[in-house]
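--- STAGE predict ---
source: upstream dedup step, 1 unique chain passed
mode: sequence only
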Amino acid sequence: MKKKLGQQSIAFVHQPVVTSTACIVGPMEGKGVLASYFDHIMQDTLYGQETWEKAESSMLEWAVKTAVSKEGSTMEDIDYILAGDLLNQLMSTHFAARELNRPFLGLYGACSTLAESLLLGGVLLDGEFGSKVAIAVSSHHDAAERQYRFPTELGVQRPLIAQWTVTGAGSAVISSAGNGPKITAATVGKVNDLGIKDPNAMGPAMAPAAVDTLWQHIQDTKRQPAYYDMIYTGDLGSVGKELVLDLFKDKGLDISTNYEDCGCMIYKETQDTHAGASGCASSAIVFCGYIYQQMLQKKLKKVLLIGTGSLHSTTSYQQKESIPCIAHAVALEL
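--- STAGE serialize ---
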């Protein structure tokens, strides 16, 4: 059976199963809308560590071990770990992988890394290169701000279009057999760049990539948006979400009835995060917490998760480059 669909998509024949998830969040996320769906809420952002970066590494390690334990497996049962974060050279992930001590593939897709890891983990299992894969991503508000923008101690005023990087980590175990949502299809995104240079304008920069990938998913799979109970993008925030809706209206499609952005689901309006949430952990904590539990309860049976990523760096920003963006889509079904 042919596994390639159209130009950019994959049909999984031996459909991998998401058999468990786990997520850990910071105190701010723990005061948000989805607090009851998280496995652990930290009391502070250092999590017993000396630095935010070390805290993020500990969060990712905790999420993987917890997801594996909840599934009834041990780390020795995991054939591969696929994981990533936002920091230079995947700093937090690499130190977590050192402690986890399993075959490891580091991934960088910025905030699209969760969807990328689900996609590639699914490919490994569909190809029968293993029977169990752990995927994980993390982000930390203070560590990311220090790298990409300004140290938080400076108290620099953020523009209203800006989003708040989520402090958290999410992990999932994907198995070749078991109970849970199956990964049935995926669409690999292309890099889009519309020339936006403002690193605060993540939503507007990433929205065209999300639209491009969803549109290609429709063409490749012949599935209309209504096929899915819900379509979720990763972290476009309120501004990016509205752009997605407008861009699809230009294509003659109204997806407003079954579309939401994870970045709009995490914080309460009173928390003053401006345009919403961002970061690798934005889609991770929503998927590993809320979406996964909704699927287990059969409140959602068909979901399309579109991870969105801004691929700029501190160096590219300093060299006044525009912001390349990408989006990957993964279909999960009961």
